[in-house]
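User: Show me a protein chain along with its predicted structure.
Assistant: Here is one chain, sequence first, then structure tokens.
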Amino acid sequence: MKKMLVVLVMLAMGISLFANGAKSNDFDLKKGEKKAILLVSFGTTFPETREKTIGALEKEFKADYPDFKVVTAFTSRIIMRRIKENEGITYDNPSEALKKLKKDGYTHVLVQGTHIMNAIESETLKTEVESYKGDFKVLKVSTPLLTSVEDYKEVVKALKPTYKNLKKDEAVVFIGHGTHHPGNSAYSMLEHVFHGEGVKNAFLGTVEGYPALDDVIAGLKKAKIKKVELYPFMIVAGDHANNDIAVDMKEELEKNGFTVKAHLVGLGENKEIRKIFVEHAEFGLTHEEENMLAKKKEYANGKQPL
């Protein structure tokens, strides 16, 4: 039953096929060719969390890939405009960044988003990048944080500092953004993996999706929890973390009788979380995306599945 749940959730999420791709040498360059990694985030107007998360990830990519040009782009045009108005800093959107890379002679580009799951934002990024395929010899988009089952387990391990000292009547609650996209099922799957890994007092909720805070509260009461450690399940601790989570949701939990401590810490501050993104990029650089249409054609011609 558990295996079936995982399969159904991953099918709903439209999991990337990189995980089953064959080895690739696409980023082995010939004379005159240049390679780059484009990191893409939604963005945040909160400078401190931006530096601790998005900035930290960019620094790690630059250290790990010295032969690549590493640049960052944001997808939220509203956030980009506000940063420019308030801080005088200009961030490119993905299209602008790709155009600049082409102009500067880059021929091989990997796009690594910092999205949590395979949903609207990651799909929109893929669509935007797809229109620039003809401008580069190689242009790939790697996968979000929660893509394979192993990713979920690695995230649970990475978050151990948040739950390792919990008492029986204490719980950790992670609040994600939420979406109407089927990829929203990632939150429930992650809670399921937490419990499967023996972390029974971990709960997932969302600001705008399912599980809602009421669902989390019901679970906390059923587990006879008295104290809650409240964290954003978002790359940055921005507007949602500072207002919806640390104020509104905290107050609602307290009204329901829980003692609550809110932590303004984005996932991007966690080195082990950033490591997962680096690993996804490395896999994208060294593997082909699996072509299921080509496989189906081979099967139709008599080839047997391995």
